[in-house]
Amino acid sequence: MKINVLFFGILSEITGKNTLELTDIENLRALKSHLWKTFPEIKDMDFRFAVNKEIIDGKVEFKNGDEVALLPPFAGG
């Protein structure tokens, strides 16, 4: 199973990536664990997750081809 992870704003700057393709990540918990190990500097940052353009909270099981976005806080007016 593959998922595509998208980084935006400061998260893209810190990780040095806009996208990341991962295999064998089945749920949000596993993704968080992988991200914290790979990019420990983002662990304590405030951001949200979206799967296929829907903001999510709580437990999520991924499907092959899901697009997971990490969204930092946005300001605007």
Plain-language structure description:
By secondary structure, the chain is an alpha+beta fold. It has one domain (2-71): Ubiquitin-like (UB roll). It contains two helices and five strands; from the N terminus they run βαβαβββ. The chain has a five-stranded mixed sheet with strand order 2-1-5-3-4. The protein is globular and about 25 Å long. The termini are far apart.
For this entry, give a set of tags.
77 residues, alpha+beta, Ubiquitin-like (UB roll), 23% helix
Question: TL;DR?
Answer:
The protein contains two helices and five strands. The protein has a five-stranded mixed beta sheet with strand order 2-1-5-3-4. Strand 3 and strand 4 form a beta hairpin.
Q: Which class of secondary structure composition applies to the elements?
A: alpha+beta
Q: Please give the number of β-strands.
A: 5
Kindly state the percentage of residues in helix: 10-25%
Give the CATH class. Alpha Beta
Number of helices: 2
Low-confidence parts:
none
Q: Average pLDDT value?
A: 94
CATH architecture, please? Roll
Itemize the secondary structure elements and their pairings.
Blueprint: E1 2-7, H1 9-15, E2 19-23, H2 28-38, E3 48-51, E4 54-56, E5 67-71
Parallel strand pairs: 1-5
Antiparallel strand pairs: 1-2, 3-4, 3-5
